[in-house]
Amino acid sequence: MKDYTQIADKIKSCADDGYTCNSAVVEACNIVFDPAFRRACEANTCGNYGRSWTCPPDVGDIGELIRQASSYKYAVVYQTIHPLEDSYDFEGMVEAGELHSKLSQRLSSYFDTLDFPKKLHLAAGGCRVCPVCAKRTMETCRHPDRALASLEAYGVNVSALARACGMKYTNGQNTVTYFGALFFTPAECED
Questions:
Q1: Is the model's pLDDT at 107 over the cut of 60?
Q2: Each residue of 124-170: pLDDT tens digit?
Q3: Measured distance CA(44)–CA(5) in Å, rounded
Q4: Would the pLDDT of 35 be above 80?
Q5: pLDDT tens track for 55-72
Q6: Distance between CA atoms of residues 133 and 168, nearest Å
Q7: Per-residue pLDDT averaged across 165-184, rounded?
Q8: Would you say 129 and 146 are in contact if contact means Cβ atoms under 8 Å apart?
Q9: Cis peptide before 57 (omega within 30 of 0)
Q10: Of 7, 14, 46, 47, which is most buried with the most CB atoms under 10 A?
Q11: Cα separations (Å) of 160 from 5, 41, 57?
Q12: Nearest to 121 by CA among 189, 62, 180, 63
């Protein structure tokens, strides 16, 4: 595998103070996909099912999304670990999700500068670009160039992804951890 650690290093430098950011490059063939994660979305535990263009069912057919994501050669995975006051700190979890989303948006700008002919950026949870998704008023997406779907919406087993990257999925008591990934195929790997 070609060395893409400079991308992983750049990700760490884009992170804010107040949380830990880790990143690693993995061959996409080592990523585990499972359509069962769509059922978790359908249970609507996050409240975004059918309320965001980047969430199921609107994000697309799970089989097609898995085929799309698994067609890439590599993924650079990033993880943010945020401290919480205690394990019931729901406000801290929400704030951590917003900080992760802000990092994901900064990384999208950086990823746009990378000269890979094929790339897909997936983040944590539903898209947070707009305070309220246009889907809720049945408008088209206001920022399709910035909107990010989640790893889970594409069927990525994030726990297995963490292991494949040498990261922990759970990082101790009184923390919350979020993941994102840029799937890419360099020009020299294209068919």
A1: yes
A2: 987 888 888 898 888 999 998 889 999 999 999 999 999 999 999 99
A3: 36
A4: yes
A5: 899 999 999 999 999 999
A6: 31
A7: 95
A8: yes
A9: yes
A10: 7
A11: 21, 18, 24
A12: 180
Distance between CA atoms of residues 23 and 166, nearest Å: 10
Three-state secondary-structure class, residue 103: helix
Neighbours of 87 (CB within 10 A): 11
Three-state DSSP at 191 gives: coil
Chain-centre distance for alpha carbon 55: 12
DSSP string, 105-160: HHHHHHHHTS--SEEEEEBSSS--SSSS-GGGGTPPPS-TTT---BTGGGTB-HHH
**DSSP letters of 14-71?**
HPPTTSEEEEEEEEGGG--B-THHHHHHHTTSSS-TTTSTTSTTTT--HHHHHHHHHT
Per residue in 142-177, is it b (16+ CB within 10 Å) or e — as a string?
A: eeeeebbbbbbbbbbbbeebbebbebeeebeeebbb
